[in-house]
Amino acid sequence: MQHSFRKLLRKNLLYMAFPVVLILSAFLLLLFQVSRLEAFQTHTMDDPSQIREYYNSGQKNVAVTLDGLKGTGVSVKEGEDEIAEYYYYVSGNRIQLVLLSDQTAKKLRTNDVKSLDMHAEIVKDEVTAGYLEREYANSLGIDRDEMEGFCSEYIFDETGYPLFRIRLIRISSIGVAVLLGILMLYVILATAFPALNHEARVLRKFGPVGRYIRKLDREMEKKLRFHQDNVTVTENFLIVSYLSRIDVVRIDDIKYLSKHVEKRKRGLARPIHVYRLTASNADDLYFEADFFDEEIINDVIYFMRGEPLLEYEEHVLKEKEEEENEIAEQQQESDMLAEEEGRESEQEIEDLFEDENE
Fold first, then answer.
1. Is 29 helix (H, G, I), strand (E, B) or coil?
2. For residue 353, pLDDT beyond 50
3. pLDDT attached to residue 186
4. How far is CA 331 from CA 334, 338, 339, in A?
5. C-beta neighbour count of 320 within 10 angstroms
6. CA-wise closest residue to 238 among 210, 221, 219, 261
7. Is residue 321's pLDDT more than 80?
8. Cα separation of 38 and 60, whole Å?
């Protein structure tokens, strides 16, 4: 199998990009499904007289143009501040109510606008319609019964229109789609031009990234000494790849090379030995890599140094000696306990015989 640094960059790029693309795609699909819910839809109403039909069909968020709006003199207050005001217009033989925000009402009064383009939520409010009917009847000095049903119970409510959540869903969808597009574009460009790959930045310390990618490709193709799992040793470089990064060390830069062994716990399971390779120099190089197989780290060191390094460190021998001593102590305690139990059994038998003789 032919190895190359370019393929290693591409493989790690796909490993990192695939879950992100999957998550963004799922999120975009979720936003698309949410935006199709009636609560996030806005319907264009060409004929305002169809307000009842729109409400009954569940199409409550509408974009509508209203003409001939007049003030009722009734406002909605929050504390001492007016936050909305009721307007009306005559539709056939009925009065249609419209609740405008304070800002829109001021704009309507100031600019003397004849028609108003607005987004509103259709609400059904019999209490408000009945109250305004009574006020209108009183102002005209007629019986309220004569006015019953004159005021429509369906109201265009500008303040209830969910502008924020509709815009939030829309902006979020656009944002996720843009991120997904940028990521896909980055994957395509980084695949075609490996020097653009984020993980290739590790080569900047050696020189131009593109040149060293080609150099490593030649090394892995023609000067490969060792390859096992995620570790590659060439004539001039040590390459260790992880899911999130790729480490590259120039062998000529290494002055100190050592192997250390330590115990690592795995929950309730028995501790295992982890073999740590350390490479450094007096300048700015310090590199560590962990291995779970001693044979692999020994091979890596051999092909880097040209000679084996199979000896255990002193603390490893000490750990083994401590384990052997611990086992011996446990065996000794077990023997002593068995001997003591034997003596107790003999004493019980002697006491039994003495009781029978008496």
1. helix
2. yes
3. 94
4. 5, 11, 12
5. 11
6. 219
7. no
8. 8
289 vs 277: CA distance, rounded Å: 5
- Per the model's pLDDT, the better-predicted residue between 329 and 248 turns out to be 248
Contacts of 24 (CB under 8 A, 6+ apart): 176, 179, 180, 183
Region of poorest pLDDT, from 79-83, 289-293, 338-342: 338-342
Burial of residue 16 (CB within 10 Å: 0-12, 13-18, 19+) is middle
Could you give the CA distance from residue 214 to residue 231 in angstroms, rounded to a whole number? Answer: 19
- H or E element: which one contains 280? strand 269-280
Judge contact between 122 and 55, C-beta under 8 A.
yes
Residues facing 63 on adjacent strands: 44, 119
Tokens for 294?
A: 């001693």
Residue 306 pairs with which residues in a beta bridge? none
Q: Is 60 helix (H, G, I), strand (E, B) or coil?
A: coil
What is the SS3 assignment for 338?
A: helix
> Is residue 38 classed exposed, middle or buried when 0-12, 13-18 and 19+ CB atoms within 10 A define those classes?
exposed
Nearest to 278 by CA among 293, 257, 262: 257
Is the per-residue pLDDT at 354 higher than 80? no
- Report the half-sphere exposure of 245 (CA within 13 A, side-chain side): 6
Residue 265 above 50 pLDDT?
yes
Lookup: tokens for 24: 């963004």
Q: Are 261 and 318 in contact (CB under 8 A)?
A: no
* Model confidence at 143: pLDDT above 60: no
Q: Is 94 helix (H, G, I), strand (E, B) or coil?
A: strand
Give yes or no for residue 74 having a pLDDT over 80: yes
Whole-angstrom distance, CA of residue 346 vs CA of residue 357: 17
Residue 239, helix vs strand vs coil: strand
HSE-up (13 A, CA, CB side) for residue 346: 6
3-state secondary structure of 120: strand
- DSSP helix, strand, coil percent of the chain (3-state; round to 5): 50, 30, 20
Tokens read off for 245: 């990064």
Indicate the pLDDT class of residue 309, thresholds 50, 70 and 90.
very low
Collapsed DSSP state (helix, strand, coil) of residue 41: coil
In terms of Cβ atoms closer than 10 Å to its own Cβ (0-12, 13-18, 19+), residue 316 is middle
